[in-house]
Design goal:
Blueprint: E1 9-16, H1 27-40, E2 44-52, H2 65-75, E3 81-84, H3 87-90, H4 96-108, E4 113-116, H5 128-157, E5 170-173, E6 182-185, H6 189-200, H7 205-214, H8 228-236, H9 269-285, E7 298-300, E8 308-311, E9 322-325, E10 332-334, H10 335-391, H11 393-396, H12 400-432, H13 436-444, H14 454-464, E11 465-471, E12 476-481, H15 487-498
Parallel strand pairs: 1-2, 1-3, 3-4, 7-11
Antiparallel strand pairs: 5-6, 8-9, 9-10, 11-12
Helix pairs in contact: 6-9, 10-12, 10-13, 10-15, 12-15
Length: 506
């Protein structure tokens, strides 16, 4: 008869902060060392909990998936011991692992044992030598972090990009005696632009991924297999409009924020803004792939109520029964009839709306610029007043809570100023880009509106149309067009100039 000693079952934990790490920090090496040590101690590793490419410096123990699984396994009595390679694998913050994993498990399971492959004794975080090892692991990470930051600062001060993989769509021109290094377009730049244009037109990240895979477009990591995360990352990177991304980290000093860019822009500012707007529209209205193209912007002409949609198609019915209906007067109209009437009305009104949008849109952008400049002047006055009041604190012998209040107000003012300056830069670049608004408007009707896909028509509708009023009985349509397509920018400016939550009184 074979007797299984469940008390000798153990779980092995491995971690490496990057897949590029080799040697003692590789998962394979850790497994090998832990397995041999467990065998010497008379244990069998029944499961492995692994955190691969996860930083212990940035992620506390309770936030790491591998350690969370280990924690649950021990609570569920799957093992009575935990083995790991050394202290640098479990923690880089000294107390995170002890407070969030070790102590709770010891409280719930007093007989649980912890072992490090670097010693034959049971692991005890309260022993002096173990505490020294935890301190050393933390110091090692802090030193690496500081060295990395210092290197980045030095390179930035010489207008060089800190070391990392060259962004997809760009190639590096090395520095010479007469010029700094720079990054210019390569053969993949059109792919980046394609991704931006598809997303601007309302196509989802999943759809873009499928198009790239089906077309066998080379992926950044090699091969033709694209990932949704890759497409999403390309849409997020300010590098593609020429911005130096190394200057936007909150951990870096303000002096690095205005360093000259070393990137040739692949995407113009206008397209960048429209992609940001598409993200906001998708977040607000959901994906654009819906048969109800004009949902959420269509109103009953009689009741001024937003129309609802209803699909009454039987489960196996071939004919579709889809309607727009008014929740107030209960009148309804067939989806195809409504869309046909809107498409016809749009085509008739568009040429007039286009010229008005082009003229009034540019005027509005100039007005926005003046509003932001005025708000910035007002903010400077508040900052000067705050600075003067702050100098009075020592002489008035005010409590420390007042000083804390001043610090909070100062931070709010500073954050708002940065937002206004950033938005002003956006507006200025849009105005300085000759014909940018005109390009946007003409892009929307590069072909007949009726011939565009449902996704494209919905994107155009949400971008350029404020409201569609419909008489559901007579199928009469009236379309109210927007002044300009930059809705997201308009909303942001409204928030910055109307939301005055910075109180100066103490």
């Amino acid at each position: 008869m074979i007797i299984i000693n469940f008390e000798k079952n153990a779980i092995g934990y491995c971690r490496r902060s990057s897949r590029k790490q080799k040697g003692n920090q590789s998962i394979e090496f850790q497994k090998q060392q832990i397995g041999m040590h467990a065998n010497r101690m008379g244990y069998i590793i029944v499961d492995w909990c692994i955190d691969d490419a996860v930083s212990a410096y940035r992620n506390p123990a309770s936030k790491r998936d591998g350690l969370k699984r280990l924690f649950e396994s021990i609570l569920n009595d799957k093992a009575n011991a935990v083995f790991f390679y050394d202290e640098s694998r479990i923690d880089r913050s000294i107390v995170s692992f002890v407070n969030e994993i070790y102590k709770p498990l010891m409280h719930a399971k007093p007989n649980i044992k912890f072992y490090s492959s670097s010693t034959n004794n049971e692991w005890d975080p309260y022993q002096t030598d173990i505490q020294f090892k935890l301190l050393n692991a933390s110091y090692e990470s802090l030193s690496k972090s500081q060295r990395t930051k210092d290197t980045q600062k030095s390179l930035m001060n010489h207008n060089k990009r800190p070391g990392s993989r060259t962004p997809f769509g760009l190639k590096k021109i090395p520095a010479s005696k007469n010029a700094d290094e720079k990054f210019i377009e390569d053969e993949n730049a059109p792919i980046v632009r394609l991704i931006y244009y598809l997303y601007m037109w309302g196509y989802s990240i999943e759809y873009i991924k499928k198009i790239l895979d089906k077309s066998k477009v080379p992926a950044p990591g090699g091969g033709n297999d694209w990932h949704k995360n890759t497409v999403e990352a390309i849409l997020k990177r300010p590098i593609y409009i020429g911005d130096n991304v190394w200057g936007i980290s909150s951990e870096l000093p303000n002096s690095l924020l205005r360093k000259p860019s070393v990137y040739s822009p692949i995407i113009n500012w206008e397209l960048h803004e429209l992609v940001k707007q598409a993200k906001d529209l998708e977040k607000k209205f959901g994906q654009f792939s819906t048969p109800y193209t004009f949902r959420s912007i269509t109103y009953c002409m009689k009741c001024d109520e937003v129309l609802k949609t209803r699909d009454s198609t039987p489960g196996k019915g071939k004919r579709k029964y889809r309607n727009y209906y008014c929740p107030n007067c209960k009148q309804k109209a067939d989806l195809n009839d409504v869309h046909s009437a809107i498409n016809d009305c749009f085509s008739k009104q568009w040429s007039t709306a286009l010229s008005q949008m082009e003229r009034l849109g540019l005027i509005r952008l100039k007005e926005i610029k003046k509003v932001l400049e005025k708000e910035l002047d007002s903010l400077k006055t508040k900052e000067e007043l705050l600075k003067y009041n702050e100098t009075m604190i020592p002489s008035l012998d005010l409590p420390s809570s007042i000083e804390k209040h001043y610090e909070e107000v100062k931070k709010k003012l500073n954050d708002k100023r940065k937002e206004i300056v950033s938005t002003l830069e956006q507006v200025s670049k849009l105005l300085n880009h000759e014909g940018s608004l005109r390009l946007t408007l003409h892009l929307s009707l590069s072909s007949s509106f009726e011939k565009l896909s449902d996704v494209e028509r919905r994107m155009i509708a949400l971008t350029f149309i404020e409201k569609i009023s419909i008489n559901l009985v007579q199928e009469k349509i009236n379309i109210d067009f927007r002044l300009h397509p930059f809705i997201q920018l308009e909303s942001k400016v409204g928030y910055l100039t109307e939301n005055n939550d910075v109180k100066m009184d103490a």
